[in-house]
Amino acid sequence: MPETSSVARRYASGIFLLAQEENAIDTWRAELAKLDEMLQDDVLVAAFRNPAVGVSRRMELAKLLKPELRPETENLLRLLVEHYRTRESHRIREEFERLADEASGVIHATVTTAIELEDDDRRHYEQGLARKLGRQVNVKFLTDPTVVGGAAIQIGDHLVDGTVRTQLARLRQELLS
């Protein structure tokens, strides 16, 4: 999955600050989910990717297909359309979710292994991380055969890389120097 872009982080941060001021984080979660779902519509995606479709026409199409959105969400939609950022809607939603969870004490982690983990192994990672960090942890598990063995754990900007691939790369570097 691609990393969150700086554009998505800026939009999500602004929305999150507004949601905190309004004490409406859950409302914004729901609104961003509706907006994200709407912007995945095949007709809109095709229209928004077509350079011949102008901003005003894009807004008309979005308004035809939009579910009931709050005025603030409509403003966000307008900004995304005007600045050609509708492709970022999913990343904005994910980053908002991460900020909201972080504010409530939930940490997101990604565990990457060479093979698909069994349920017991997944629980072991989840419980171990929660115990080590002293907080609730939402873990996303990814598989990447190139890691060969071991695991890489990403929590925010912090990476703990215990993969065989990295160990082999370090050994190779030591042997070459």
Under the CATH scheme, which architecture of the largest domain would be assigned? Orthogonal Bundle
How many strand segments?
A: 4
The domain count comes to: 2
Instruction: Give the helix level as a range of percent.
Output: 55-70%
Radius of gyration: 20 Å
CATH class bucket of the largest domain: Mainly Alpha
Give the DSSP E fraction (strand runs of 2 or more residues).
Answer: 5-15%
The low-pLDDT segments are none
Order of strands across the widest beta sheet? Answer: 2-1-3-4
- What count of helical segments does DSSP give? 8
Largest sheet: 4 strands, mixed
Order of helices and strands: HHHHHHEHEEEH
- Considering the protein shown, what is the CATH homologous superfamily of the largest domain? N-terminal domain of the delta subunit of the F1F0-ATP synthase
Distance between the termini: 35 Å
Determine the structural class based on helices, strands and strand pairing.
alpha+beta
Q: Which descriptor suits the 3D outline?
A: globular
Mean model confidence by pLDDT: 89
